[in-house]
Design brief:
Pfam families: Syncollin. Keywords: Cytoplasmic vesicle, Disulfide bond, Exocytosis, Membrane, Signal. InterPro entries: Syncollin. The protein is mainly beta. The strands form two sheets. Strands 1, 2, 3, 4, 5 and 8 form a six-stranded antiparallel β-sheet that branches. A two-stranded antiparallel sheet has the order 6-7. The protein is 10% helix and 39% strand. It is globular. A hairpin with a 3-residue loop joins β4 and β5.
């Protein structure tokens, strides 16, 4: 049976699409301590250029009802570590809409719906991150 070249390119293109965002398993500090999540302030229409800009490193069990001002309503990409879950809110004080992100890379939050008319890009104002 002959394999078409297009079939072989699909896994390669998929791997390249996530090139800029770190893998969930790679979220560790320099000394090997687990990181629950990383939030980023810049993304791009091109997946390989997402997860850029300023980075907010979120340790396990961090509970922030008020985002640091440099990140409040400015997060456009995020990565959640293995065996972790990031819960976010759209309003300060853990108000408004909420969503849970399981382990994985989310390079374009504008593709994640927040209700009927919105998305999660530039919409995170509070978070809680936990790991098992």
């Amino acid at each position: 049976m002959k394999t078409s070249p297009t079939f072989l390119l699909v896994p390669l293109l998929f791997a390249m699409a996530w090139a800029q965002c770190p893998a969930p398993a790679d979220l560790k500090t320099a000394n090997g301590t687990k990181i629950c999540a990383q939030l980023y302030t810049k993304n791009s229409p091109y997946y390989d250029q997402c997860c850029a800009g300023s980075v907010l490193v979120v340790p396990p069990d961090e509970d922030q009802p008020y985002m640091p001002s440099a990140f409040n309503n400015k997060v456009t990409s995020l990565v959640v570590g293995q065996r972790c879950e990031l819960t976010v809110w759209s309003s300060k004080g853990k108000g408004g809409k909420t969503r849970k992100f399981k382990a994985g890379a989310f390079p374009r939050l504008q593709e994640i719906r927040k209700g009927i008319f919105g998305d999660w890009a530039n919409a995170i104002s509070a978070y809680y991150c936990k790991c098992s």
